[in-house]
Design brief:
Order of helices and strands: HHEEEHHEEHEHEHHHHHEHEHHHHH
Number of helices: 17
Radius of gyration: 20 Å
Distance between the termini: 35 Å
Largest sheet: 9 strands, mixed
GO molecular function: catalytic activity
Structural class: alpha/beta
Transmembrane segments: 352-371
Helix content: 40-55%
Protein name: AB hydrolase-1 domain-containing protein
Keywords: Membrane, Transmembrane, Transmembrane helix
Domain AB hydrolase-1: 59-294
Shape: globular
Strand content: 5-15%
Number of strands: 9
Oligomer: single chain
């Protein structure tokens, strides 16, 4: 009871979300990435995690996030699967993280064009893409606009084949744009809980309001109007007949119980692309399949992206990369190591509160992942 009353007071002077964000930054840095902001000179700036050392022998993989906190929060738990096999780039799309534009465009076509400019600015002209939900819209547009640049494509729960009348026909959990805005851009703890329940087949335990309020303040309080315009751009005037076909090998991954973009859209997308696409349906998962079934999700991506590579890169890995390949620092053992390290540091410094803070930061990451 004392702890329960103490946590909200602690949150007033200590942000659990910002601390977890800092921890992600450290983990990305340890993984061999650095964050760089690229100014296009037209009022647009994009931030991206890029390799500190680019290995010419490795192919390039771009991880594109959906609506949510930022790129780190959505791919932080999966980065280690790919860092030893690819030169990995993790961008923040426009109006997420530190990326923004003064230009009026809001379509996924514009996002894809900006992402292509970003990759070219880093000297990358050939790549594979993984796009989650809204990131899948952007990834699909990149594959359609720049077919020579995109080798392989993974689309996870991306309702690219959505049509405007699907909302009126009751295919989705929401029926109006205003309702979609209020849920997808939560501004109160109750709305954030509603989003978690909507995106997960098995929602986590109820999270205290002060955790949720802190998350909203740090991650969901900027570019609100611009993000509404992004949502409106993908949900209005969509017709399947206007969607260009792509020819790249494509893996479509879907949670069986997705309520944001129902599984029907996954099969519709498979039929639209044709023979070059395959679909993997993950059971016991909703729209947040990356979090709910992370091992199954990673297995499908490894099979599609890594097992198809003509050469093995294991002999070309650095010592640190080989260690990363053997040990999963973001697994249970990684979490245990963080907690043990915190306890040891607390004993040395005589500050037991530090242990509680570290554990709370870890738990906040487990409970506050939003994949939209």
């Amino acid at each position: 009871m004392v702890l329960h009353s103490m946590f909200p007071k602690l949150s007033r002077c200590f942000s659990f979300t910002a601390s977890r964000d800092w921890l992600y930054r450290q983990s990305f840095s340890v993984a061999g990435l650095r964050s760089i902001a690229t100014n296009f000179g037209d009022g647009t700036t994009m931030s991206c995690w890029v390799p500190k050392i680019n290995h010419p022998s490795k192919p390039t993989l771009v991880l594109i996030h959906g609506f949510g906190a930022n790129a780190m929060w959505q791919y932080g738990e999966h980065l280690h699967h790919f860092i030893t096999h690819f030169n990995v780039y993790v961008p923040d799309l426009i109006f997420f993280g530190d990326s923004f534009t003064s230009r009026p465009e809001r379509t996924e076509t514009f996002q894809a064009q900006c992402l292509m400019k970003l990759m070219e600015a880093h000297g990358v002209h050939r790549m594979s893409l993984v796009g989650t939900s809204y990131g899948g819209f952007v990834g699909y547009s990149m594959a359609a606009q720049f077919p020579q640049a995109v080798e392989r494509l993974v689309l996870c729960c991306a309702g690219v084949c959505f049509e405007e009348n699907d909302m009126q026909d009751g295919l989705f959990a929401v029926s109006t744009l205003d309702e979609a805005f209020s849920i997808l851009l939560p501004q109160t703890p109750d709305k954030l809980r509603e989003l978690v329940k909507l995106t997960h087949w098995r929602p986590t335990m109820d999270v205290p309001s002060f955790f949720l309020a802190d998350f909203i303040q740090v991650m969901c309080s900027t570019y609100i109007e611009e993000k509404k315009e992004l949502i409106e751009a993908i949900l209005t005037a969509r017709q399947l007949s206007n969607l260009p076909k792509i020819t790249q090998p494509t893996l479509i991954v879907w949670g069986e119980h997705d309520r944001i973009f129902p599984l029907e859209l996954g099969y519709r997308l498979k039929g639209h692309i044709g023979e070059s696409a395959e679909i993997a349906v993950i059971k016991n998962a909703g729209h947040g399949v990356i979090l709910e079934e992370p091992k199954e999700f990673a297995r499908h991506l490894k099979s599609f992206l890594i097992d198809t590579q003509p050469t093995s890169f294991s002999s070309q890995l650095t010592l640190w990369e080989k260690i990363q390949k053997i040990f999963d620092f973001r697994s249970f053992w990684g979490a245990l190591a963080v907690c043990c390290g915190g306890i040891l540091l607390a004993e040395l410094l005589g500050t037991p509160l530090l242990v509680m803070v570290i554990i709370l930061c870890y738990l906040s990451a487990r409970f506050l992942f939003i994949y939209v």
